[in-house]
Amino acid sequence: MIDSKCLYDANRCAANVMVGKTIRLVSVVMAVSLLQGCFGAPSIDDTMDEYTARLSRVLDKPLTHEALSQEALPDSTLATSNIALPSHTYPTLAELGNNVTPLNINIREFYAIQDCELGRIVAERNTALGKTQLPSQRLQYEHRLLNVLANCEARLQAADNPIASTVAAWRKQKQAQYQSVWAKVVQTSTEMKLGLSMAGAPLQASENKDAKASVNALNFINGLAKTLKHESVVEGKLQATHESAGDGSVANASFEDANFEGANFEAANIVEKIDKVNVEVSASDSGELEQQLQIIASSRLPAKLWQTQAILHNRLVSLNQVLAPALNSVQCKNGVTSDKATILRNVFYLYFIEEIQPIASTLNSYHYQLQPLWKQWAENAALSAPFKAHIRTHAIDNFVQYSATMKAHVSLWQDFLGRCNLSPTAP
Question: What predicted TM-score, i.e. pTM, was given to this entire model?
């Protein structure tokens, strides 16, 4: 039914229609919000779809993702402005490389170290399970091996056994390789690859599973690179041994003596002090490392951050190019607000301010929490160049592009709202 007043006052009729549209828009948004409460928040892609569709409808212009991809912009423009998803840039195993040279021990040396636990540790590595260790298991093994080597070296030196120098050479070799073993955990373990490349789903404004714990887990893994990194840590074991020996009365005891552990009180003292140092330099027990890796795999926080920034950038960079002239065409003569301008402001508030900006805020928060970690990895010589390029691309280069695109989008709305004498407040 036509309002009779419209027959005499076209402006009033148009205003009624616009107000009606605004009310319907708010009603739809409220209904969508209620549904979200039942079924969970929409993804950033869904929100961007709705945002661009609403703007397109009000402006009567093709702003949807499909329209921008196929009509509004040349393919070359989109191809050069888009940034890659993390799943597309993670290096292959061949690119990561980082093979660790095994420690070779001949039969004579192997039998000579049977009494100092080192023989058992070496034999463990040569079993079928030992040869197929996961990167995390290998790192734990290297921790144990370095501790046992230091203990064995100290005991052999105290016993004036000539094989002590050979064990010292083995320890230095494994010491030099430790960072490479740690790097394999970071670069090739399944959990880390999931966390750094396979997002599964984009970031949400809140309720991102294990996200906060993931920051701590990543820093925990990073901290393992420093454990036993410096030779002085292991040398501390040897110094403790010499201090325990005192005047050297134990130094001439035979290591092969069956009574070495039980009958000699001073020798037992040496072992006890070495074992105390052992506890101090141990990086972690196996359960702790595996638990932290599981948190990283569960959260996939870095991949989610990088996937979300790619989606936001790729969607907004094309939208910005066509939205700017579309907003400029909206009439707000002499700063007088029009109904169309008000509806556009409402769409901007309800979708960008209320839905998209909180996700961007969460993304930025986690990005800055992880920035010191990425910087350390960028400077770590044990990590491969392709892996560091993957980190640099998403944690630095793509973040800069995403930030600039978000800023450009906000700026064009600020210009429009200022020109139409509107503020980005709730409708």
Answer: 0.75
